[in-house]
Fold this protein.
Amino acid sequence: MEIKSAVFIKGSPTINGVFEDGLPHVAFIGRSNVGKSSTINALTKVKGLAKTSGSPGATKHLNMFLVNNKFYIVDLPGYGFVKGGSGRRDTLHDLIEDYLAYSYEGKQTIVLIIDAKVGPSNDDLDILEMLKGHGKNFIVAVNKIDRLKNAELKKQLTNIQSLLGGTKILPYSALKKSKIAELLKEITA
Ligand SMILES: Nc1nc2c(ncn2[C@@H]2O[C@H](COP(=O)(O)OP(=O)(O)OP(=O)(O)O)[C@@H](O)[C@H]2O)c(=O)[nH]1
Ligand SMILES: [Mg+2]
C-alpha cells in the first residue's frame, strides 16, 4: 500500500477522546524517545506530521492521523521517563494502559517499538506481556539500526530475538528511512 494522504485528526489527553468509527487503528507504543513519532513521519512521508524531539516526552496526548481515508495511525506518549515527577509518568502510563485495555470494534494493530542499541527494557517486556494478555494483534519493530555497525547490529538483533522468544522482529531506521517499506507492508497487512 502506498500512503497518499495523512492528516492529523485529533489529540486527546484521555482514552475517552479516542476516535472510533470502525476504521482500523495502527497504534505505536514504546519507550520515550524510541522514535514512535519519527516512524509515523517516515511511514507517511510527511515531515513534522507527528511532533518529534531530541528529548523524551515529546508526545503528551493520544494523537490520531487519518491515512488514505482508510485507517488511523495512533501516536501515543512514551514510557520509562519521568518528567516533573511521578504524576506525569502515571498519567502517561494510564493512557497507554487504557489504550491497550480497551477493545476497539474495528481492527487494531499495535506496533511495539524497541531501541536496537538499548534492547528491550523491562517496561517493553511488560508491555509485550500485556499485548499477549489482551490478545492484541501486534508487531515488534526495532528502530535506530543506523546506530550500530553491521557486526554489532547482527549480534544485537540475535540478542533481542532471544529475549523476545518466538516473537518476530522487524529491524528498521526511521532516521535513514531504511526498511520503512517493509514496516509499512507489515502494519497494513
Ligand atoms: N539515530 C536515530 N535516531 C532516531 C531514529 N528515529 C528517531 N530518532 C531520534 O530519536 C529522537 C526521538 O524521536 P521521537 O520520534 O520524538 O520519539 P518518540 O518515541 O515519539 O518520543 P516520545 O514522544 O517522547 O515518547 C529524535 O531525536 C529522533 O530524531 C533512528 O532511526 N535513528
Ligand atoms: Mg512521540
